[in-house]
Design goal:
The protein is mostly helical. Helices cover 70% and strands 0% of the residues. The radius of gyration is 20 Å and the shape is globular. It starts with 8 loop residues before the first helix and ends with a helix.
């Protein structure tokens, strides 16, 4: 089992960054050539690949919350980047730009997804059931963000009481993914306990052989696929209100091809890379915005 677990956290982050970059390149091409049929096809392909990134990032967030030495510093880093992105969205959408690039207004802030997912997992870890009740706050925010964007898409009416620069990007889907990954460990523990009782093999031996890691990977992927299918189903329940491309969104399930081979190890973790992985998302958006201004603006 250990032989197949070849991807550390470092490699999952690299894969997520690569797919996210493809997504941003597709976005730039759409901004530059909004009426080109061929570019639209390329845009859809790249955006489809881009959807693979989110489950990988959410998985890493769950791993981060479970293993961080300081949850306060971890949440603070996520919060600072979320704030920077929200300010950037506010600035970009209030300058004289084309109608195509103004679509960033409804995209949402992915770091709000990551921050609220981290908060949800942190609260689920608490032994005090009273503290766990506070998970209703991030869940409520994610549902409100989702419903408002769907309402605006269907009716073409703006909801002014909820600022657009506080929209999440994937809303309740992000939190549902995080909760699924979190509980995959608990379900894996239950499986190992049952397997140990049936086989007579000590749990510690099963863990050393990578069986627990493998079980958590499989369960996590299955729960991720379930969450993705649920999101996909909304395209048929509320077809006019969905604000994303359901066909492209469905490709998120292919992230499982990487998660199945996760080793549970951190891998390369130099300080520069840690901060680079936080900063890359806003920096990549700034770069494509500058390219757009220079070429197509």
């Amino acid at each position: 089992m250990r032989k197949t677990q070849i991807f550390s956290s470092f490699f999952l982050k690299i894969f997520a960054i690569v797919f996210m970059t493809l997504d941003h390149v597709g976005l730039l091409l759409k901004w530059l050539y909004p009426t080109s049929y061929d570019i639209n096809i390329i845009h859809n392909i790249l955006r489809g690949f881009g959807r693979i990134a989110l489950p990988l990032f959410i998985f890493m967030i769950v791993e981060g919350v479970l293993h961080t030495k300081s949850i306060k510093k971890y949440m603070l880093r996520l919060g600072i980047i979320a704030l920077i992105i929200s300010i950037g969205i506010l600035v970009i959408t209030n300058v004289n730009i084309s109608a195509d690039i103004s679509s960033i207004k409804g995209m949402g802030n992915i770091f709000l997804d990551l921050l609220l997912t981290a908060l949800t997992i942190y609260l689920l870890k608490q032994p005090n059931n009273y503290k766990k009740l506070f998970i209703l706050l991030p869940i409520a925010i994610s549902i409100i963000s989702f419903c408002i964007k769907c309402y605006e898409t269907e009716t073409h009416n703006l909801v002014y009481w909820y600022p657009y620069w506080l929209y999440m990007q994937y809303d309740w889907y992000s939190i549902l993914l995080g909760v699924g990954f979190f509980y995959s460990y608990k379900l894996a523990d239950s499986y190992l306990s049952h397997y140990s009782n049936q086989s007579g093999i000590e749990v510690s031996v099963l863990e050393e052989n990578g069986i627990k890691r493998g079980a958590a990977n499989i369960i996590g992927v299955l729960l991720m696929i379930g969450a993705s299918l649920l999101l996909y189903a909304f395209a048929y329940i509320w077809p006019k209100g969905i604000y994303w491309d359901a066909t492209a969104q469905f490709t998120a399930i292919f992230s499982g091809a990487f998660l199945l081979f996760y080793s549970g190890k951190r891998g390369y973790n130099a300080k520069w890379f840690k901060y680079f992985s936080y900063a890359y998302y806003p920096l990549s958006l700034i770069i494509i915005f500058i390219i757009y201004i220079c070429i197509g603006g």
